[in-house]
Amino acid sequence: MSIFSVLKQIERNLESFTKAEKSVANYVLGNPAQVMEMTTKELAAASQSSEAAVMRFCKRIGIQSFKVMKLELAKELHTKGDGIPEIVDSPFQLEDDPKLIIQKVMFNTIQALQNTEKMLSVKSVSKAIDQLDQAERIFAYGVGGSSVVVRDFTQKLLRINVNVFRSDDSHLQMTMTANATNKDVVFVVSTSGKTKEVVDLLTIAKKRGVTCILLTQNGASPARRLADLVLTMSEEEHNLRIGTMTARIAQMAVIDALYIGLCSKRGQEVFERIVDTHEAVQHLKK
């Protein structure tokens, strides 16, 4: 059963909406059943906004049209209370027992993946694959929890003989970026898009004329404004969190999609590389 939630997406992105979009959001949150029967014009009037604001609002939560949003609302309201116990669909608590912890982790992970699938633009993913394929060199960068995702992406790209460079040292990464050219690509993963090191690195890359691809959560951020191409995942976690869990899983899924897309684009030679690297590593296991 799908657990994509329009209402939760609205709640999570509430602070990132413009004033007009927030008016629409608050009206939808307070009157979801009525909104299902409305036209764009009627919702604009009821929320004291505009039809343009309604359309922007839909796209902000990963839905391409008002009609689709009403369909998603209808599905959510129809299935509300069925299948998913409310206690599972709730924040982690110190008194949670291991069984409930497992249920919550699994539920949140599946929800994050489904939300990101709704949010992610196929056109942007296709363009990112093309840019990565054409790049002479790829400089991959991430800070903190995002660095784990970047390390995984780097390992995958090295297996298919892609010239990719990564460092956990921000000074060294900045040095590499300063030597990049317009034939290269800087690929950055940042959950918030607000990390100072990420913003500084993207600023240098832009001055060098380097193509910048950013994987980040939905919502306005300094990094998003600097990137040439943004791959948007749903906003599952905020500044205060136990750890980057669902965000990391969603990021890894996007990374895997880029990797498989790149493999498909490069054809049979890629699989020969994978076999060769696999056999090379097997010698270490003897």
Automatic annotation (TrEMBL):
InterPro entries per the UniProt record, alphabetical: Homeodomain-like_sf, HTH_RpiR, RpiR-like, RpiR-like_SIS, SIS_dom, SIS_dom_sf, WH-like_DNA-bd_sf
Matching Pfam families: HTH_6, SIS
Keyword Chaperone part of the UniProt annotation: no
One GO BP annotation of this record: carbohydrate derivative metabolic process
Domain of life, source organism: Bacteria
Segments forming domain SIS: 128-268
Entry GO MF terms: carbohydrate derivative binding; DNA binding; DNA-binding transcription factor activity
UniProt keyword terms in alphabetical order: DNA-binding, Transcription, Transcription regulation
Keyword Transcription regulation: yes
Organism: Jeotgalibacillus campisalis
Gene3D superfamilies: Glucose-6-phosphate isomerase like protein, domain 1 (3.40.50.10490), Winged helix-like DNA-binding domain superfamily/Winged helix DNA-binding domain (1.10.10.10)
UniProt name for this protein: RpiR family transcriptional regulator
HTH rpiR-type domain boundaries: 4-80
PROSITE patterns according to UniProt: HTH_RPIR, SIS
